[in-house]
């Protein structure tokens, strides 16, 4: 965003004191337009009537007061560069800010170890990939409905070589605890 700067003594300047208040309204609105469009204080003649009703007549009052001067195909603010930056300077500052932001983002990515795409770095850093799992995970999510305690679900028997345990080779005992399948793990012990 570019600011159109107005001197804090503008209100008491002799040129301002001698100018119609409506013309000063055009001066302010046109200054904002110039700042937004980076025209270095140039106001095209076709823009003036679109900025404020009666703009063309008011522009001539600004020229008569010495606040504007006639320019080819429009008007030029008097002493624009005394208080406002040039379009070239604003563009250079924007490019510098964009470069600083790019470098900052890059440094944040590098500091967090992501270095770009998550797909490549997660596989190395976490030992996993972002690929879909080859089989569903039988472990339910923690806490159910936003609760804080982990619960142990009843394990279901799924097709496996022994036919008595699930694919993790665990069976649920009558007391609700989980143990390794005695068929698949003859020296079975409780898993807890």
Give your account of this protein's structure:
Residues 91-101 have a biased composition (Basic and acidic residues). Residues 91-152 are annotated as: Disordered. This protein is mainly α and 192 residues long. It has three domains: 10-83; 87-126, no CATH class; 152-192, no CATH class. The protein is 39% helix and 9% strand. The strands form two sheets. A three-stranded antiparallel β-sheet has the order 1-3-2. The chain is rod-shaped and about 105 Å long. It starts with 13 loop residues before the first helix and ends in a 12-residue tail after the last strand. Mean pLDDT is 78; it is low at 118-123.
List the helices and strands and how they pair.
Elements: H1 14-17, H2 21-37, E1 42-44, H3 48-51, H4 55-65, E2 68-71, E3 74-77, H5 80-83, H6 87-111, H7 118-126, E4 170-172, E5 178-180
Antiparallel strand pairs: 1-3, 2-3, 4-5
Helix pairs in contact: 2-4
Beta-strand share of residues: 5-15%
Approximate helicity band = 25-40%
Overall mean pLDDT stands at: 78
- Main sheet summary: 3 strands, antiparallel
Radius of gyration based on Cα positions: 37 Å
Structural class: mainly alpha
Topology order in helix (H) and strand (E) letters: HHEHHEEHHHEE
Total beta strands: 5
Number of domains: 3
Broad shape:
rod-shaped
Q: Give the strand order, joined by hyphens, for the main sheet.
A: 1-3-2
What is the end-to-end distance?
63 Å
The number of helical segments is: 7
């Amino acid at each position: 965003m570019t600011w159109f700067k107005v001197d804090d003594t503008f209100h008491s300047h002799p040129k301002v004191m001698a100018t119609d208040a409506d013309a000063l309204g055009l001066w302010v609105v046109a200054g904002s337009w110039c700042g937004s469009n980076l025209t270095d204080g140039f106001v095209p003649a076709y823009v003036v009537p679109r900025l404020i009703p009666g703009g063309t007549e008011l522009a001539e009052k600004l020229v008569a007061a010495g606040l504007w001067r006639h320019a080819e195909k429009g008007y030029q603010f008097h002493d624009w560069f005394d208080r406002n930056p040039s379009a070239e300077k604003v563009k250079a500052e924007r490019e510098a800010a964009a470069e600083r932001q790019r470098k900052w983002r890059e440094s944040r990515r590098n500091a967090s170890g992501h270095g770009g795409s998550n797909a490549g770095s997660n596989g190395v850093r976490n030992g996993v990939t972002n690929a879909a799992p080859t089989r569903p995970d039988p472990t339910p999510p923690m806490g159910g409905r936003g609760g804080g305690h982990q619960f142990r679900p009843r394990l279901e028997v799924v097709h496996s070589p022994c036919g008595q345990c699930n694919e993790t080779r665990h069976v649920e005992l009558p007391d609700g605890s989980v143990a390794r399948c005695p068929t698949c793990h003859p020296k079975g012990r409780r898993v807890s």
